[in-house]
Design a protein that fits this description.
Layout: E1 4-5, H1 16-28, H2 38-57, E2 65-68, H3 71-85, E3 90-94, H4 99-110, E4 114-118, H5 128-134, E5 139-143, H6 157-164, E6 170-174, H7 186-189, E7 193-197, E8 208-212, H8 227-230, H9 238-253, H10 255-275, E9 281-282, E10 291-295, H11 301-310, E11 313-314, E12 321-322, E13 325-326, H12 330-336, H13 342-345, E14 346-350, H14 357-375
Parallel strand pairs: 1-11, 3-4, 3-5, 5-6, 6-7
Antiparallel strand pairs: 2-8, 7-8, 9-10, 10-14, 12-13
Catalytic activity: (sulfur carrier)-H + L-cysteine = (sulfur carrier)-SH + L-alanine
Organism: Planococcus notacanthi
Family: Belongs to the class-V pyridoxal-phosphate-dependent aminotransferase family. NifS/IscS subfamily.
Length: 377
């Protein structure tokens, strides 16, 4: 059976050129970048080259990039690192953030911090005016994701950044889902901290970075050596970082082409459902191009995902699976309420490298067939 992978928002397959870069670096760039001999200097050059490319990709300076083990660590460093450096006890975030931000904020809440969790509208979008109204004299951090990983809604980050300018409040955005899909300029976004992970854009797992604007104070989470300008201890994973840079290079150079392809895939998918008379609603608006989240009345998501899997389609509810059951999506609950049908009948399809229009046509046809079959039960 030809399996069709439509869960690129969860993780993505490594691009063949990235695999090649990774494999070559594993065998040849084995030195410690902190060593002063030739082998170490070769590793340092590979590290510096990757750092420069990744910094340029968001219009930052290479000294503003801190390599991490991925998006979770980058988010944690932004939240905990800011809290440890500032004297205020108030943080503003949204109810639809990734759990790497939400759970970090919940831990700080247990330690005496006051967290404001901003609501979103039915499209999954927070309002900049709500951020403004929530600001207090003791606010130290605002964290709003750039693009939501479940429904794809793009948040008004630049607008929020503009209203925070000159306030002294640190502004963080989780750009894990948006990086490589949307053009990102940290100056235009007016952000101080920005999180990225490699495995969302056909790079290796276990590597990411946090952009830290010059002059913004963040306390390290790890203590040991003086790597990453004393901001993140531990010998850098040079092969993975080199592969990350290669993935970013490919992703950024093909962004317009990918965007057009993904929008076409959405059209194909929805047209196929329309032709079969499938009743559905698209969740979210102003979305990332690669995410299509659909509510299909009459289905239960757990059995729907199992049937899709048996049909060779890898998709997701956009929520975490725990002990064989699917927890309600905190994003859909925030959009529609705890009793809404959407939290029980919504599915996320997400597109990426390796797909072709015929794959989407086939996946949509099987989705329609399963929808009709399950709706009859």
């Amino acid at each position: 059976m030809n399996r069709i992978y439509l869960d690129h928002a969860a993780t993505s397959p490594m691009h063949p050129e990235v695999v090649s870069t990774f494999s070559e670096a594993l065998g040849t760039v084995y030195g410690n970048p902190s060593s002063i001999h030739g082998t170490g200097r070769a590793a340092r050059k590979a590290l510096d080259d990757a750092r420069k490319l990744l910094a340029d990709s968001i219009h930052a300076d290479d000294t503003e990039i801190i390599f991490t083990s991925g998006g979770t660590e980058a988010d944690n460093l932004a939240v905990f690192g800011t809290a440890a450096k500032k004297s205020g006890k108030h943080i503003i975030t949204t109810v639809i953030e990734h759990h790497a931000v939400l759970h970090a904020c919940e831990k700080l809440e247990r330690e005496g911090y006051d967290i404001t969790y901003l609501a979103v509208d039915e499209n999954g979008q927070v309002q900049a005016e709500d951020v403004k109204n929530a600001l207090r004299d003791d606010t130290i951090l605002v964290s709003v994701m750039l693009g939501n990983n479940e429904v794809g809604t793009i948040q008004p980050v630049a607008e929020i950044g503009e209203l925070l300018k000159g306030t002294g409040i640190t502004f963080h955005t989780d750009a894990v889902q948006a990086y490589g899909v949307l053009p990102i300029d940290v100056e235009k976004l007016n952000v101080d901290l920005l999180s990225v992970s490699a495995h969302k854009l056909n790079g290796p797992k276990g590597v990411g970075f946090l952009y830290q604007r010059k002059g913004i104070a963040v306390s390290p989470l790890l203590y040991g050596g003086e790597q990453e300008r004393k901001r993140r201890a531990g010998t850098e994973n040079v092969p993975a970082i080199s592969a990350f840079a290669k993935a970013a290079e490919i992703s950024l150079s093909t962004m317009e082409e990918k965007t057009a392809a993904y929008e076409h895939y959405k059209t194909i998918f929805k047209s196929a459902l329309n032709q079969q008379g499938i009743d559905y609603k698209e969740n979210g608006s102003n979305q990332l191009p690669h995410i299509l989240n659909l509510s299909i009345p009459g289905i239960e998501i757990e059995s729907f995902l199992v049937n899709l899997d048996l049909a060779g389609i890898s998709a997701s509810s956009g929520s975490a699976c725990t002990a064989g059951s699917i927890d309600p999506s905190h994003v859909l609950v925030a959009m529609y309420g705890e009793q809404a049908a959407e939290i029980r009948n919504s599915i996320r399809f997400s597109f990426g490298f390796g797909l072709a229009p015929e794959d989407i046509e086939q996946a949509a046809a099987k989705t329609a067939q399963i929808s009709q079959r399950l709706a009859l039960k």
